[in-house]
Structure formats: structure tokens, C-alpha cells
């Protein structure tokens, strides 16, 4: 499994936030957004704004960092996470 992250600006409500398009083997699989200071204690964490296929989640997902997000993605896809 090849996981590629592409930086993108995401318009979420009143702010444009730092985001990442997540591609798995060349296909768009998810959109992650880095939470701004407006989110208080969760600022700087990554939110699964949208997941497609097996990454779709009815429960909002927040990850402490990108490593945690990548590990979750790999597990959902039944693959091993990338080595450090």
C-alpha cells in the first residue's frame, strides 16, 4: 500500500485551515484537517474531515498527530503502517 499525503487548504466554516489529501495507491481516500486554535485543547490535532470507502467513519475521528492518523488508515485498510 502506498500512502501519499498532499497539502491543501480546506475551507471549513469561517476559516481556511491546513489540510491534507490522503491518497492510497493513487486514489483519493480521505481528507484530513489540522484543527486551528479555535478548537481549544484540540488545536494542532488532525481531524478526519472526509473518508471514502473503508475510511468512511460515522464517528468523528481526531488524531493526536499524523503518525496516529496514518496508523489508523493503515489498520482500516488492512495494511501495516509505514515504517518510521
Q: Which features does this protein show?
A:
5-stranded antiparallel β-sheet; 84 residues; mainly beta; globular; single chain; 1 helix
Count of helical regions:
1
Largest sheet: 5 strands, antiparallel
The beta-strand count equals 5
Q: What is the structural class?
A: mainly beta
Order of helices and strands: EEEEEH
Fraction in beta strands: 35-45%
Helix content: 10-25%
Mean pLDDT: 88
Determine the N-to-C terminus distance.
15 Å
**What is the number of domains?**
1
- Cα Rg: 12 Å
**Broad shape:** globular
Major sheet: order of its strands?
1-2-3-4-5
How would you describe the overall organization of this protein?
With 84 residues, the protein is mostly beta strands. The chain has one domain. The chain has one helix and five strands. It has a five-stranded antiparallel β-sheet. The radius of gyration is 12 Å and the shape is globular. The protein starts with a strand and ends in an 8-residue tail after the last helix.
Quick take:
The protein has about 80 residues and is mainly beta.
Fold blueprint:
Elements: E1 3-12, E2 15-24, E3 27-34, E4 46-51, E5 62-63, H1 66-76
Antiparallel strand pairs: 1-2, 2-3, 3-4, 4-5
